């Protein structure tokens, strides 16, 4: 009944809205599957498991200070974080996959600019930490 309770309830509501966005057009595109009945229930269960894994990985990545490697931390004049824990977890996994896919090219490019090697090593360290968060 107090202002603090109202603010707490509103924060919970905004978290639920973010989850719906993540499960729909912002992440898994649930509405474009046209699934119904048993297939829809199985898909929702699978998405719930995947969503939980992505959120946990995103939280771990944030706690380890790795979000800056995955996406922008915050924009100027913006009060809230740019990306949810779900987004950080999901794209952290994609970032690691891309680094593994392009590893040979990245190593070749680093040979061309040895002065940038410390930054490359920092990125590789971040990649291994993100993998441990997954």
From TrEMBL:
Keywords of the record:
Membrane, Transmembrane, Transmembrane helix
Which species does the entry assign this protein to?
Atlanticothrix silvestris CENA357
Give the residue spans that cross the bilayer.
40-58, 84-103
What's the protein called, per UniProt?
IS4 family transposase
Query: What SUPFAM superfamilies would the database entry show?
Result: Ribonuclease H-like
